[in-house]
Design goal:
two-stranded antiparallel sheet
């Protein structure tokens, strides 16, 4: 005779057991995935990392950089901070602005300036290096809008992992490598101090939830 009461009482424990088992299985499989894919799967299991974290300052603004726009997203962050005694700026580099997050070597190897039509203000030709990173004095409209200076001044910068995956795949042929190798190399060459985040739109949302007003970077 089937004990219906016992069977009913066992349902929840069984579900919990198999739920834990499936969770362990997923965690085990993640170890065999390529690292960029691992990051996406891990982010999908939760709400993502604690980014941008606790922001200091009375005034807070996020610059949504979705195009390089001659570096103006960086300029907007600088001009927001300059007149404020107590402020924090957050920049989200996504979509067409993602290459700003990459070091010089990636710009040269993957022909980023030539392919995406980004002009170096110093040479007036397609950029073969990141023109917004460690530029010579006087090259940019304002020296303090340089990426390295903004990072040194406490600006929080996040770079979109979705843009990294899409653009590295698109430009992999320029370097004669496969899409997975390109993505791995790009991730390893994100400028120190910049955080690779699940997506740019995710980052804009998290910055606003952390008290930032919104500025379109273009």
């Amino acid at each position: 005779m089937i004990d219906l009461a016992r069977d009913a009482n066992d349902v929840t424990p069984r579900r919990r057991f198999f739920g834990r088992l499936s969770g362990v299985a997923v965690l085990g499989l993640v170890g065999f995935m390529p690292k960029p894919l691992q990051a996406q799967v891990e982010a999908a299991r939760a709400d993502g990392p604690d980014w941008p974290g606790a922001l200091k300052g009375r005034h807070r603004q996020v610059v949504d950089a979705y195009e390089t726009n001659a570096g103006f997203p960086l300029a907007f962050a600088h001009t927001f901070l300059a007149p404020n005694e107590s402020a924090t700026a957050v920049i989200v580099l996504r979509h067409g602005a993602f290459p700003i997050a990459l070091g010089h070597a990636m710009w040269a190897k993957y022909k980023i300036g030539e392919t995406i039509k980004i002009i170096d203000p110093e040479t007036k030709a397609p950029a073969t290096k990141n023109p917004f990173l460690n530029p010579k004095p006087g090259v940019l409209l304002m020296d303090d809008m340089a990426l390295d200076r903004l990072l040194a001044n406490g600006v929080v910068v996040g770079a979109c992992n979705v843009a990294l995956q899409v653009q590295s795949k698109m430009l992999a042929g320029n370097a004669g490598v496969g899409a997975e190798e390109a993505a791995t190399e790009w991730a390893a060459n994100v400028v120190p101090g910049i955080t690779l985040i699940p997506s740019g739109t995710w980052g804009v949302n998290r910055a606003q939830e952390s008290g930032c007003t919104y500025c379109a970077g273009g």
